[in-house]
From TrEMBL:
It comes from Halobacterium salinarum (Halobacterium halobium). The keyword Transport does not apply. The chain crosses the membrane at residues 18-36, 42-62, 74-94, 150-170, 256-282, 288-308, 320-339, 345-370, 382-405, 411-430. InterPro entries: MFS, MFS_dom, MFS_trans_sf. Residues 196-218 have a biased composition (Low complexity). Its main location: membrane. The keyword Transcription does not apply. Residues 196-232 are annotated as: Disordered. This is MFS family permease. Pfam families: MFS_1.
Length: 447
């Protein structure tokens, strides 16, 4: 993994990912706690979760745009937009107009911007690293995501406890500015499966319109900057957009990825319910600091899984996932029992952290499976379809979790998550097309 950091493009993209994730962590903890602080009602926590997670179900709509627009500009533009928007909360507080409705209005707009960021990063990664390095690269990205969450979730909880949630929004704006500057230095080549054959363009260089249609960089990128009308601007016409969307669906249709997503919907619903109940649970055991600690526990488990994922990529992916979800469900159930019994907060956090180590492994390997199985020129739209399909149940889970926490207490949603994970393990075991999936390196490219 260390050799990847010697590549300037990867290093800048990776560092930008670190800073972006830091901003997301600060924002999420601040927003969810601010909603709870303003209302003390778990129902509103559920609504906040729905508005934050809901746009992820629309990610598939952004995939064709990611494949057509210059990826570097997508990354820079989204960070700049978020840097400005997040300042609405400190401004509202300063002018005396802060309310839960202002916070709820900002949340989905920031989340919508992120639906471009992560597919763009996923589409860029196979273009700047060799396929043999994809698992290591995805492990590094997952480490960035979970490692930053581990540190900044805990730090955010501490800052909220000391200075209040509004202060975090101002800091968050600076992280988005820093990420935009880092992404500005990344060069993303044309997709390999869109490269013209030798002699196509005289000297063998890719013609300008290739980069414009698949998100790479070429002279079309420069033309777009000066206002020249070419495929960079006309390629997003409705007919072309819908054709790209259909092409992504065609890749997925009938593949094993559809079965993967069907099972993920159930456990993601339960995960959303758990996330919505955590502010109410944390308030009973220690307040904002406890909330940050719980969120850090989730991140610690995923981080541990990301650390070991590259050492497990030789194992059959199907059987590994059976073990992943069985262990996760068992340990989440243990955490729920501990919480019900009044165990110390650190015991509950430790059980959560252990429960999500196998999930961290599975997430890294699944990203590598998608990148290995999908042609590069379609990766943006397919990644966004996969993201939407796997995430669409989470916002509805958060709404249900808020209602369940209000009616039965916040621990009830944790029991639901445990049961869903165990059901998912049984599902992977029962479906031959999933159970028999080979190691990541042996996955064939989909047509």
């Amino acid at each position: 993994m260390r050799h990847l950091l010697t590549d300037t493009n990867f290093r800048r993209l990776f560092t930008g990912r670190l800073v972006t994730n830091a901003g997301d962590s600060l924002y999420y903890v601040a927003a969810m706690w601010l909603v709870w602080e303003l209302t003390h009602d778990p129902f509103y926590s559920g609504v906040a979760g729905f508005l934050t997670m809901g746009p992820s179900a629309l990610q598939f709509l952004f995939g064709p745009l990611v494949d057509r627009w210059p990826l570097r500009r997508v990354l820079i533009g989204t960070q700049a937009f978020q840097a400005v928007l997040v300042l609405a909360i400190p401004l509202a507080a300063y002018t005396g107009h802060l309310s839960v409705w202002v916070v709820l209005a900002v949340m989905p707009l920031l989340a919508l911007a992120n639906q471009l960021v992560y597919p763009a990063q996923s589409a860029a990664l196979p273009r700047i690293v060799d396929q043999a390095d994809l698992v290591d690269a995805n492990s590094a990205f997952s480490l960035a995501y979970q490692g930053v969450d581990l540190v900044f979730n805990a730090a955010a909880g501490a800052v909220v406890a000391l200075a209040g949630a509004v202060a975090l929004y101002a800091v968050d704006s600076l992280t988005f500015v820093a990420a935009a500057l880092l992404f500005a230095g990344v060069h993303i080549p044309v997709a390999a499966d869109e490269q013209p054959t030798a002699g196509t363009d005289g000297a063998g260089d890719p013609p300008a319109d290739v980069a414009a249609t698949d998100g790479g960089e070429s002279s079309a990128d420069d033309d777009a900057a000066t206002g020249t009308v070419d495929d960079a601007t006309t390629g997003t016409a409705p007919d072309g957009y819908l054709a790209d969307l259909r092409a992504g669906l065609t890749v997925l249709r009938g593949s094993f990825l559809v079965l993967v997503l069907a099972g993920a919907a159930v456990v993601n619903f339960a995960s959303g319910a758990t996330m919505a109940s955590l502010p109410a649970f944390a308030d009973t055991v220690g307040g904002a600091g406890a909330y940050g600690t719980l969120m850090a526990g989730f991140a610690a488990g995923n981080l541990g899984g990301a650390l070991v994922a590259s050492r497990l990529d030789h194992l059959p992916f199907g059987k590994l996932n059976v073990a992943v979800f069985a262990v996760n469900g068992t340990l989440v159930a243990a955490a729920a029992v501990a919480a019900t019994a009044g165990a110390p907060l650190l015991v509950v956090v430790a059980l959560f952290a252990l429960a999500f180590i196998p999930v961290g492994v599975g997430n890294v390997l699944l990203s590598s499976v998608v990148q290995a199985a999908v042609p590069e020129s379609k990766l943006g739209r397919v990644s966004s379809l996969v993201g939407s399909a796997s995430q669409f149940a989470i916002p509805f889970g958060t709404l249900a979790g808020g209602a369940v926490a209000g009616a039965f207490g916040p621990v009830a949603a944790i029991y639901v998550l445990a049961g869903a994970a165990l059901l998912l393990a049984a599902y992977w075991l029962a479906v031959p097309a999933l159970r028999t999936l080979p190691p990541v390196g042996d996955i064939d490219t989909l047509d």
